[in-house]
From TrEMBL:
<dbReference type="GO" id="GO:0102704">
    <property type="term" value="F:GDP-Man:Man(2)GlcNAc(2)-PP-Dol alpha-1,6-mannosyltransferase activity"/>
</dbReference>
<dbReference type="InterPro" id="IPR027054">
    <property type="entry name" value="ALG2"/>
</dbReference>
<feature type="transmembrane region" description="Helical">
    <location>
        <begin position="500"/>
        <end position="522"/>
    </location>
</feature>
<dbReference type="GO" id="GO:0005789">
    <property type="term" value="C:endoplasmic reticulum membrane"/>
</dbReference>
<comment type="pathway">
    <text>Protein modification; protein glycosylation.</text>
</comment>
<keyword id="KW-0812">Transmembrane</keyword>
<keyword id="KW-1133">Transmembrane helix</keyword>
<feature type="domain" description="Glycosyltransferase subfamily 4-like N-terminal">
    <location>
        <begin position="23"/>
        <end position="238"/>
    </location>
</feature>
<comment type="similarity">
    <text>Belongs to the glycosyltransferase group 1 family.</text>
</comment>
<keyword id="KW-0808">Transferase</keyword>
<protein>
    <recommendedName>
        <fullName>Alpha-1,3/1,6-mannosyltransferase ALG2</fullName>
        <ecNumber>2.4.1.132</ecNumber>
        <ecNumber>2.4.1.257</ecNumber>
    </recommendedName>
</protein>
<dbReference type="Pfam" id="PF00534">
    <property type="entry name" value="Glycos_transf_1"/>
</dbReference>
<keyword id="KW-0256">Endoplasmic reticulum</keyword>
<keyword id="KW-0328">Glycosyltransferase</keyword>
<dbReference type="Pfam" id="PF13439">
    <property type="entry name" value="Glyco_transf_4"/>
</dbReference>
<comment type="function">
    <text>Mannosylates Man(2)GlcNAc(2)-dolichol diphosphate and Man(1)GlcNAc(2)-dolichol diphosphate to form Man(3)GlcNAc(2)-dolichol diphosphate.</text>
</comment>
<dbReference type="InterPro" id="IPR001296">
    <property type="entry name" value="Glyco_trans_1"/>
</dbReference>
Length: 535
């Protein structure tokens, strides 16, 4: 992939900053973007607060990409399952401060009396050899996504341009914004968090979003910023999803989940907002009429996060309530008894045994890339069920269409831009877009299972054409390359920008108030004693 912005004569040093490099759509975008820019000749390194090789994409731990873990020691991911966003921000700030220190040490190399502090000729190769004394060469530009809190530090302290990729405004993802009764205390706690997000997002040199839907939501959420972000659709490696999966059948992890039953596939992180219960309930109704079908619920699972643990446990309980024979396959499952999160009444159960033939619902926490490729490309897989509402875009439907699978998705959010509804365009349709009701999804699942070979082939061809034309990795990386070069080419000095001067004034006011208040408190007792003595 030979990408190069017009007029560029050198390669860039690009630093990616991502909170948790696990398994998910945002992580897949970061990995694909890093790979594409690296293949274009740029120097790319990823900085993250957490990276578990057993719960991550292969490119992040097989040496393909250089990944550094910083900010994973001072603050936990949450406090007993609470204050997750606060902890995420603190961990990101810890990461960036460590990175700033490393870059500063590199810039001080060669100065008098610094040799005893900075090791000579010790480039940072990976997170394994990182230390507070490690020097790191500066970057031309940073690519930050999900959390924007670090942007002022990167720009003002390092004087480095930064691009922010907004998957979705975080303040709309918290329960108090989506109709949950969370109480006034939580709403009060969110006020400074939301203010930090809006302010720090505005400090990005360029803001990118993943869909027209997110672009519209961004403008409605942050009207004070007066910015319209540029849409850069996430892309996928189309060829990777068009190769045969026959060779994967010999893999032990694939044999443990393989079946000749017609299979419906759902891929999401095990989070409540992903609404996987919809697929489970609709499947249960169809299974009464078609008993020889199977549902596979696969996705990222982090035992450190209460939402993941509770959601998987609740889905297992729901499957039992619906009288469905279930099995959860995860050989590497840790003991949840040692987890720091509170115990709940929905405690998930894992197994290292092969799925029995009678299994109707198969749960696959942290499934491998080989398992994923097999499930998407297997001749027994009939369709993808994509349940989230108002999803920002959705990488999984793209992967399914590239694999030739029809997609059933919610008629909200990003899927409306990726999936063409068979009901409105039968010749070019790639699936169905429906309201999230069990009745509508039950009818659609029946229709997908009853498709003829000719209908299935037509949908498969339409899906592959659409992904090739609009959602390939090459297309995404070309647009990112242009955006990064435009950002680097900005000539105005950061310290002379009006936003920087305004920020100094904004921060100086509360600092002055705090100093004054502290001075009064420290001197009040002494003043009172003087008054009492004079009396």
């Amino acid at each position: 992939m030979a990408l190069r912005a017009e007029g560029s004569q050198r390669r860039l040093r690009i630093g990616f900053v991502h909170p948790d490099l696990g398994i998910g759509g945002a992580e897949r975008l970061v990995v694909d973007a890093a790979l594409g820019l690296q293949e274009a000749g740029h120097i790319v390194e990823i900085f993250t607060s957490h990276h578990d090789p057993s719960r991550s994409f292969a490119e992040t731990h097989d040496g393909t990409l250089k990944v550094h873990v910083l900010g994973n020691s001072l603050c936990p991911p949450s406090f007993r399952g609470k204050f997750t966003i606060v902890c995420s921000i603190l961990r990101q700030l810890n990461l960036v401060i460590s990175l700033i220190l490393a870059i500063t040490l590199h810039q001080l190399q060669g100065w008098p009396l610094t040799g005893w502090i900075i090791p000579a000729q010790t480039p940072c190769k990976s997170s394994a050899d990182w230390s507070w004394r490690r020097a790191q060469e500066p970057y031309d530009v940073f690519f930050v996504d999900q959390l924007s809190a670090c942007l002022p530090l990167l720009r003002w302290v390092l004087r480095t341009r930064a691009v922010f990729y907004c998957h979705f405004p975080d303040l709309l993802l918290n329960p108090s914004k989506i109709g949950h009764n969370t109480g006034g205390l939580r709403n009060l706690y969110r006020i400074p968090i939301d203010a930090i997000e809006e302010f720090s997002t505005g400090q990005a040199d360029k803001v990118l979003v993943n869909s027209l839907f997110t672009q519209q939501v961004f403008c409605q959420t942050f009207p004070a910023l007066q910015r319209t972000p540029r849409v850069v659709y996430p892309g996928i490696d189309v060829k990777a999803f068009q190769e045969t999966s026959a060779t994967n059948r010999d893999d032990a992890s694939v044999q443990a989940i393989a079946s000749d039953k017609p299979t419906l596939l759902s891929i999401n992180r095990f989070e409540a907002k992903k609404n996987a219960a919809l697929a489970l309930e609709a499947f249960a109704i169809v299974a009464k009429q078609m008993p020889h079908i199977r549902l596979v619920l696969a996705g990222g699972f982090d035992p450190r996060l209460q939402d993941n643990v509770t959601t998987l446990g609740a889905l297992q309980t729901l499957a039992s309530t619906l009288d469905l024979h279930q099995h959860t396959f995860w050989p590497a499952a840790p003991s949840l008894s040692q987890s720091s999160i509170p115990r709940t009444r929905f405690e998930p159960v894992f197994s290292a045994d092969q799925a029995p033939e009678a299994t109707q619902v198969l749960f696959l926490p942290n499934f491998t890339q080989i398992q994923k490729s097999y499930m998407l490309q297997s001749s027994t897989t009939r369709a993808l069920l994509y349940t989230p509402m108002n999803e920002h875009l959705g990488i999984v439907p793209l992967e399914a269409m590239a694999s030739g699978l029809p997609v059933l998705a919610s008629d909200t959010g990003g899927p409306c831009e990726t999936v063409i509804d068979l009901a409105t365009e039968p010749s070019e349709g790639t699936g169905y877009l429906l309201p999230n009701t069990v009745e509508r999804w039950t009818d659609a699942i029946r229709a997908l299972l009853e498709m003829t070979d000719e209908q299935r082939q037509r949908v498969a061809s339409a899906g592959r054409r659409r992904v090739n034309a609009h959602f390939s990795t090459r297309s995404m990386c070309e647009k990112l390359d242009v955006a990064l070069w435009e950002t680097v080419s900005i000539r105005t000095m950061i310290w002379r920008e009006p936003e920087f001067l305004n920020a100094i004034m904004i921060f100086s006011i509360p600092l002055l108030v705090i100093c004054t208040f502290t001075f009064v408190l420290l001197n009040a007792p002494q003043h009172q004693r003087a008054v009492s003595q004079s009396i």
